[in-house]
Amino acid sequence: MCRKKVGVVCGGFTSEFEISIRSGETVFRNLNRDFWDVFLITIDQKKWTAIDDQKKTYEVSKGDFKLISQKDSVCLDLIFNAIHGAPGENGQLSSLWELLNIPFSSCDSYNAALTYNKRDCLSVLRDWNIPTAKHFAINSDDIIDEKIIETVVGFPCFVKANRAGSSFGVFKVKKRSSLSEAIKKAFKEDNQVIIESELVGREVSVGVYALNNSINVLPVTEIISENEFFDYAAKYEGKSEEITPAKIPADWKERVEDYAKEIYRKLGLKGVVRSEFIFVNGIPNFIEINSVPGMTSESIIPQQVKSKGIDLSVFLDQLLNHALIKNNP
Sorting pLDDT into bands at 50, 70 and 90, what band is 166? Predict the structure, then answer.
């Protein structure tokens, strides 16, 4: 059997660079070499490079995404996208791969851009009657009226960079005197900020993926953070308890799975994604969606895959084969 050439793309241009590198390395290690010739591609602001199993290095062409060495070049058959943040999760690279007709594991460019933009995504989901927190949006050049923000969302609230992940640029604000400083810090990650009312309840994470023309849900994870919310330390430094499968009532589980599948279907998502919800009075309120979720050993998706009884290598094979089929129906 002729093995397909897969580029596992990681890195990126945001604060999530190091997490993305770890995700990419996990995928690179776990892809089955019986099926795939695998290249680990690292992208940063200065250079795009690749390495193969023999430690041979390549330069990645930004025009056609070929891997170029001193002696030869490699044309990739497909891409596994492991870039959290720009330019992988926000649709920029997806646009290039679409133009080049290279299949890839994540969402199409438009859908990726929409899910990466928290406030635009929330606006769309509210039109579909998906419950969410109250929110207030501001840009870096707006005049900030703290009294109006307090009236709309109240305190405590969360100040979030609109286009960022892994809880970078996210701050819990308990009183108005702390609001201005939190907004200033969030603007360091993005020039758009969203401020949301606090939702008090049990938080869960739901992994969803498409396979064999059906939308599948991985076991739900409940997140119990030692910190005030599921921040970077909670995600990657062991400051949270993640229970998979979640010990929640059966009707809660059914309701949140239905919402997660509905969001996946209506937004036209691809590959594996992870949606976050907080239950308030038994109702799951949507927080955000990750269209390129973490794949490190600490990440939730690998935990859910294991809980479902699927080997991570097999799961990754399924995602890549599905991407090939969708590109060549």
Answer: low
Cα(129)–Cα(283) distance, integer angstroms: 12
- With a cut of 90, say whether residue 326 has pLDDT above it: no
Q: What's the pLDDT tens digit per position in 167-195?
A: 678 899 999 999 999 999 999 989 999 99
> Containing domain of residue 147, as a range?
135-197
Rounded to two decimals, the pTM is 0.90
What total of structural domains would you count in the chain? Answer: 3
Tell me, yes or no, whether 101 and 25 share the same domain. Answer: yes
